[in-house]
Amino acid sequence: MSNPTNRMPLIDALKAIAAMLVLLNHFSSYGPLAATAREALPGLMGWLFEYGRMAVQIFLVIAGFLAARTLSANGQALGVSPLPLIWKRYLRLAVPYLAALGLAIAAAAVADHWMDDEAIPARATFKQWLAHAVLMHGLLGFDALSAGVWYIAIDFQLFGLMAVLLWLGRVKLVAPALVLAVAAASLFWFNRDASWDNWAIYFFGSYGLGAAAWWASERRQMSSWLGVIATVAIAALVIDFRLRIALALAVALTLGFSRRTGLLEQWPDARPLAFLGQISYSVFLVHFPVLLLANGLYSKLELSSPASAIFGLLAALTASIGAATLFYRWIESPAASRRITAALGWLFGKGLDAARKVPGLAPLLTLLARRA
């Protein structure tokens, strides 16, 4: 997260809205609470189930927009090795993500005692947890331990792919052109084939639209550049219309114009949206464990009326925001993340010192340290 004084209110607002829509999509999809509430509010619950998931496109475009700002603010190639940047991104995602996985596993164990429902993930195995820890559970065919964790793996892949493309470019203008070419390939080909949906290339069209919006807003003739971007995306939609890509294009154009006009840093001036935007990643991470516990408690109390289900969902929504607030403060925030990373580094160092005292291991560890 950036310093609060450097935040962009429009991006915070979009992230807040997207996080709430993803949360409500899951609330309309899993467990007896969703099934019972659907009886009372079939239209609303059906819409959230069908379209709420598309809010992920907002996150994808924003992520590409901010990645361009971080890696290639002026359209330049990446002059240093991308590996340290990719590792830094992994730590940024993984520290809160792994903590949230622990919450999800614990919540699933509790809910499993209270109800029998397909929404509860099966008991985690070590291999499954390890695949999640390295953000490869989708690629390796493991079932997800929490709803929405596929996106975190994809976000990491997308950042890594973009960093490598910018590094391969090595010459100004060539690097962003390479990114945009891969984005176009995604829009016209890969995104039309769902078999690629565990790979970054499937989503890189939306991510690339976000990056293109950042670079276009730097140009003097911004309208012309954004027009070119819109033309390419619309051509892809003419070939195969996908509402998710149309939404991604709308968000990208909004970001590009708002940055050039100054609205990005000024509007909307709404503290609730700014706060929800700041904790949006925490909301994304912790809402499913809360939902599992809410569904389990609903079943344990043997409630069945639509009114009680709606109340349960509202209570779960409130609890999710409260839990996310605490989670952000103690785990996700930059200060907390630094403390956790430092503590893990200290523990690793102590473990390494202890391992060096084991006969026969010391020479091997010294050799590995020198090579590192």
From TrEMBL:
Example GO biological process: polysaccharide biosynthetic process
CC annotations in GO: membrane
Organism domain of life: Bacteria
Transmembrane regions listed in the UniProt entry: 52-72, 93-111, 148-168, 173-190, 196-216, 228-255, 275-298, 310-331
Single annotated GO MF: hydrolase activity
Annotated signal sequence range: none
Keyword annotations: Hydrolase, Membrane, Transmembrane, Transmembrane helix
Acyltransferase domain location: 11-322
Protein name: GTP cyclohydrolase
Annotated source species: Dechloromonas denitrificans
